[in-house]
Amino acid sequence: MAARRERCQDPRMAADERLFFLLQSAAHRLRVEGDRRCLAAGGVTTAQLGALLAVYDQPGLTQRELAAELGQRESAITAMTGRLIDAGLIVRQPHPEQHRALVLDLTAEGTATIARLRPVIESFNRELHALLGDAFGPTSEALRYLAGWPG
């Protein structure tokens, strides 16, 4: 017979445990819904859109810089950029100064994909704003802070 899990008697600990679970659950649900919408409208996931936007904002970004920008491992970024190259959304080119490095740039189709997805993201953000109301700003600030923690 499985041991019954004891309920935490300290309400602060229970709230702390629940907060982490709720953050994980919310992030998962938002990612799934965001991916569904972005795939339908532009053929890319939200993670891929994040990479496209980073390259849009910083043309000539290296894969190492993109990994740091997105908080991802370089191996994950290498695989993602490979898929974006195969889809014709970005290109890798030799770095103008570092002979071993490659830089990333958007293709015309990559720029068009971002343009198609901007209304989708704006709509998603409007829905979140309506859902959260006055808590939207503080929630956004708290998540921005958490995204950079620790460090």
From TrEMBL:
Domain of life of the organism encoding this protein: Bacteria
Boundaries of every HTH marR-type domain copy: 16-151
GO molecular function terms listed in the Swiss-Prot or TrEMBL record: DNA-binding transcription factor activity
SUPFAM superfamilies reported in the protein's UniProt record: Winged helix' DNA-binding domain (SSF46785)
GO biological process: response to stress
InterPro entries given in the database record: HTH_MarR-typ (IPR000835), MarR/SlyA-like (IPR039422), WH-like_DNA-bd_sf (IPR036388), WH_DNA-bd_sf (IPR036390)
SMART domains, A to Z: HTH_MARR
Xref: PROSITE patterns: HTH_MARR_2
Protein name: MarR family transcriptional regulator
Organism, scientific name: Amycolatopsis dendrobii
